[in-house]
Amino acid sequence: MWKRLPPEARAAPPARAAFGLLQAVWARDLEGTAAAAAALPAAVAPEGPAAAGMAGPVRAALRSRAGALVAKAYTRLPLARLASLLGCGSEAEAAAVAREWGWSVGEGGEVGGLRPLPRVEGAAGADRPGAPLAAGAGGPTLDLLDAFVDYVVELEA
Fold this sequence. Notes:
The chain is mainly alpha-helical. 58% of the residues lie in helices and 5% in strands. The chain folds into 2 domains: 1-66 and 141-157; 76-114, no CATH class.
């Protein structure tokens, strides 16, 4: 699909940002996904509030899924590593997210107590690891990512 777009469409920042994000998700690169998701709001902001409004929920959903994968893969890990995997801007932000999810943060900068958390239904738990990505209760969804991709393709067509 990407190769079929005209060169001027591929050069557009929203199209490049969406494609970069989809590449990282496809490759299951958590750090790349976090970086691409962080760059998404700035790339789509010139396209208007509808596109910009999709970026936040997509980023939250991707962070939630990354948290669920981290909880399955680790029992302990350095705070700096958690920050890079979740796309947090700082170790302090990563520590706050870890505490919010019920994980322990040690004084030495290590996160422990990671365990797969049960799936949380509804919008109230949409920012927790294991939260569903299916539509419902206004929470972040993969449907938003799909809508975003459709929006970019339509915009560039």
